[in-house]
Amino acid sequence: MKKVITYGTFDLLHTGHINILRRAKELGDYLIVAISADEFNAIKGKEAYYSFEQRKAILEAIRYVDEVIPERNWAQKVEDVQKHDIDVFVMGDDWTGKFDFLKEYCEVVYLPRTVGISTTKIKKDLNMT
Ligand code: C2G
């Protein structure tokens, strides 16, 4: 079984998220999504509208997603890849190069972002700060 993993906040889920989840799943048979815990979002300088539990429940309802785990820090990726026996690590290309150190452990794939949509844009358009 070819296992894929990807990481993110996945707040206010939108088609950009769905597009990367769909393409990530197409690269294997089993997709794990590590979503940022609320405390880690604070470290990332992001404040999610939905809590970790809410974002986890939403992601678990998506047909492409097989498992959701918490992302608690920047340093857990090597351990995650080894622990979950990951074959492919996937991120949007806004992260190109940032995770090349994982090439020692698995395939690293950066996929083009979906243009014109982001959680930040949604908040701005809805006049949420
Ligand atoms: N994404 C995308 N197209 C968009 C918006 C997001 O392809 N229009 C992708 C991002 O490139 C990322 C994933 O969707 O791969 C999740 O995006 P975010 O929730 O913004 O995640 P981010 O804050 O980039 O966190 O350790 C990695 C971090 O947790 C990534």
From TrEMBL:
Its EC number is 2.7.7.39. GO terms for molecular function: nucleotidyltransferase activity. Residues 5-124 form the Cytidyltransferase-like domain. It comes from the Bacteria. It holds the Pfam family CTP_transf_like. Keywords: Nucleotidyltransferase, Transferase. InterPro entries: Archaeal_FAD_synthase, Cyt_trans-like, G3P_cytidylTrfase, Rossmann-like_a/b/a_fold. CDD domains: G3P_Cytidylyltransferase (cd02171). NCBIfam families: cyt_tran_rel, g3p_cytidyltrns. This is Glycerol-3-phosphate cytidylyltransferase. The gene is tagD.
